[in-house]
């Protein structure tokens, strides 16, 4: 969720704020510590744009697929629409990835991470805790519709 800092830019319908990016699990997480954990967002009507960075100092326990949690608003619950998120930077993975990309999950506040490990390989392998190190670092951005 977004934190309490919200800026309204007059009557333009634009709102801006900050959110706390969390590296977690699709099921649960505990014990993570961070050196960087930040994000910003802008919203016009139902459209939300976001960017964030999270860098671990300890990954703790991550259960399920690795996700970036804490998006500022819940994603619209359209189960047929998968929205891509841009991963602008990542570092410190155990698995050697050629690329990491994200899918903004409908009806959640999170981005599911996928990796590709070899040229020509199908990019459909979700990241799990064993794929990232204790100092995993990631930058994510994207936009989506919300019904909140």
CA radius of gyration: 15 Å
Number of domains: 1
Percent helix among the residues?
under 10%
Low-pLDDT stretches are: none
Morphology call: globular
- H/E topology pattern: EEEEEEEEEEEEE
Number of helices: 0
- Report how far the terminal alpha carbons are from each other: 12 Å
The oligomeric state is single chain
> Main β-sheet: number of strands, strand sense, barrel status?
11 strands, antiparallel
Mean of all residue-level pLDDT scores: 90
Give the strand tally. 13
Secondary structure category: mainly beta
Percentage of residues in DSSP E strands: over 45%
SSE topology sketch:
Blueprint: E1 2-8, E2 14-19, E3 22-25, E4 28-30, E5 33-44, E6 47-58, E7 61-63, E8 66-69, E9 83-93, E10 99-104, E11 110-116, E12 125-126, E13 132-145
Antiparallel strand pairs: 1-2, 2-5, 3-8, 4-7, 5-6, 6-13, 8-11, 9-10, 9-13, 10-11, 11-12
Q: Could you explain the architecture of this structure?
A:
- With 148 residues, the chain is an all-beta fold.
- It has one domain.
- Helices cover 0% and strands 61% of the residues.
- The protein contains no helices and 13 strands.
- The chain has strands at residues 2-8, 14-19, 22-25, 28-30, 33-44, 47-58, 61-63, 66-69, 83-93, 99-104, 110-116, 125-126, 132-145.
- Strands 1, 2, 3, 5, 6, 8, 9, 10, 11, 12 and 13 form an eleven-stranded antiparallel sheet that branches. The protein has a two-stranded antiparallel sheet with strand order 4-7.
- Strand 9 (83-93) and strand 10 (99-104) form a beta hairpin.
